Amino acid sequence: MDSIVVKGGTPLKGKIQIAGAKNAALALMPATLLSEEPLTLTNAPRLSDIKTMTELLRSLGVEVTALQDGKVQVLSSHAMTSTTADYDIVRKMRASNLVLGPLLARHHQAVVSLPGGCAIGARPMDIHVTALEAMGAEIELKDGYLHATAKGGLKGAKVPLRFASVGATENVLMAATLAKGTTVIENAAREPEIVDLAECLRRMGAQIDGEGTSTITIQGVDRLGAATHPVVTDRIELGTYMLAPVFAGGEVECVGGRLDLVGSFVEKLHAAGVEVTETADGLKVSRSNGRARAVDVTTEVFPGFPTDLQAQMMAMLCTAEGTSVLEEKIFENRFMHAPELVRMGADIEVHGGTATVHGVDRLKGAPVMATDLRASVSLILAGLAAEGETVVSRVYHLDRGYEHVEEKLGAVGAQIERIAGS
Ligand code: EPZ
After folding, report:
1. Is the pTM of this model over 0.85?
2. CA of 222 to the centre of ligand 1 (A)
3. pLDDT at 289 over 70
4. What is the pLDDT of residue 155?
5. Is 200 a catalytic residue?
């Protein structure tokens, strides 16, 4: 397994190109299952999760062609061979469950393995199941697989979500495009990746209103056609690299960054004394002298503070002036980066879903271990600020969601290198 070595203390200077959003692409790719016409995605991110989704879709008979080193993905499901998503793929990536809605909608059947838990929580699928049953699906759990059928196809329905689940909203949104009649999703997730999916489905011929609000209305149509769609900018990669100069000092411009994607995150940066400037090409962050100020953070559904930036923010607050309280409200176990940061000299107390961070003057480099995607990158960022050398192991977690992190940070002056593992 590869590891990444970071030497702290070198100020950064330059531009980082932000890639297309992993969490948009992982919903856009299964949308190909809704039509026998080709779907072309541009600005696609080059990530191992995209390779896993490609492997899953190919196992169903979907043709997936990567062009321009993976920045363009051309998908076609005109020759499907299966409607079963196997456990050995689904267990690697929960987003595999996003084939459930499209398969049910167009093929009226699906067998999808339950993803199983992961490092950050149990991550059940009850909201997905309840919603699709409201649309006429019959879903039974057998041997760890959801066996779903929709005799005569899905029917439009009012679908209230007990929680604004991103994945459940995406599954229902895709399923409803081909259902008979009108579907109204209530308490829908409002994330930019939902908006991006709706825009892509509309390009394919779907009739959708209200994406980005809590109520989305979809008028079912008989079939969907071909489309070409650019994947929206990755707001989590954006937020991650915006923090890099706060750790290391210097100035970084995140090309492709948009304020509307990171509103609540930027509000917290301002409260912490970090200035963010809009430029013609994106968002620029420079480390004003002196330490950041402590701020309290509570993760919420969009447009609240994103859970996927909680670990990165905690790492930044480790050397802020004062005490910060972070509350993780989305996942039940998303503080695994805390003990690793403590190994680097951070002063953090975790009690259930609340972490209290007492700012210290400086972190010290240490060998640390990545546990989940976002925890991994928070350790890389901490290494930029730490005295000495930090070695982050198990970086396969990192490669799931960050394109060539050592190249992007190295290009703006970070002392960072990847050590190939055994
Ligand atoms: C998406 O996961 C993202 N993944 C996650 O990003 C992100 O953290 C999450 O949304 C929240 O924003 C992708 O888009 C591929 P949820 P998803 O359904 O759809 C509970 C990353 O780092 N829940 O909104 O799985 C669930 O257990 C990843 O890129 C149920 O209880 O998130 C969790 O506690 C991590 N029953 C909460 O809701 C359900 O049926 C949020 O889950 C579904 C969810």
Report:
1. yes
2. 30
3. no
4. 98
5. no
